[in-house]
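Format notes (please read before filing issues)

Several people have asked whether sequences and structure tokens are stored in separate files. They are not. Every record keeps both together, in the order shown below: the sequence lines, then the token lines. Line labels are part of the format and must not be stripped during preprocessing.
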Amino acid sequence: MRNLDVTTLRSFVAVADSGGVTRASGFLNLTQSAVSMQLKRLEEALDLQLLERSGRGVALTAAGEQLLTYARRMVSLNDEIYARLTDQAFEGEIHFGVPEDILYPVVPRVLQTFHASFPRMQVHLTTSNTLQLLQRYGRGEVDIILTTEEESHGETLHETPLRWHGAPGGSAWKQRPLPYAQARICAFRPAVIRRLDAAAIPWFQVIDSDSDRSIEATVSADLGVVALLEGHAPPQLVAIDTGDALPDLGTMKINLHADQAKGEPVRALADMVRSGFAAL
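Then the structure lines:
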């Protein structure tokens, strides 16, 4: 009988989900060469080509797409069996806070991996802005948080450009005073205003709201512009190439704050978050 190796299937799923060996290796905590070797072993075992490789990444072949569904089920069942039979020591709750604009793509994968390893631990996910998350963390209401900050507080996991965003084909960014739409409690706001004032660009707050959805609706109607992290904008908004018309906004840091004293599950969740962002 011929048996498939779950380790190679796990690497295959990770590469399919992340779109490349480099990102998958970071998420799996393996070297790129180790992941590539596992993929080669899997293709040789099945005598099939599963991936189309190009300079920019990989794409699934027809056989690869067919295998992916089975591979997900086998990896999931393997993890469930292992967790149920060996990892029953930890029970309880973890409160995890994340700004809504950096939920994807890392956090869902982390939650899935954590649940497989600690099936009796319940993770309560809270989405809020950085300022409120820091306050709640300081009061001990949450065990681990991610924040978007201009400076390195806690442990910096990733640094991402802050970009001007507006409606597709919009012209609000050309207006003076500049119609600026950003929640007053947004962590980006002080840095953006400081750069606008330094560039002597007049501006006004076009909407007074702390609702991200209201901000997005205003900007998508071409009534204003907003500063968002590159790659994290909703689909109805686009990054604007303003040339020298608006100041460069620099970068923001994604920081991790974790109460390591709260035990092994919190430390494990923090490690999974680190691995997830290392793979970006």
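For reference, the curators noted about this record: The chain has a mean pLDDT of 90. The chain has nine helices and eleven strands.
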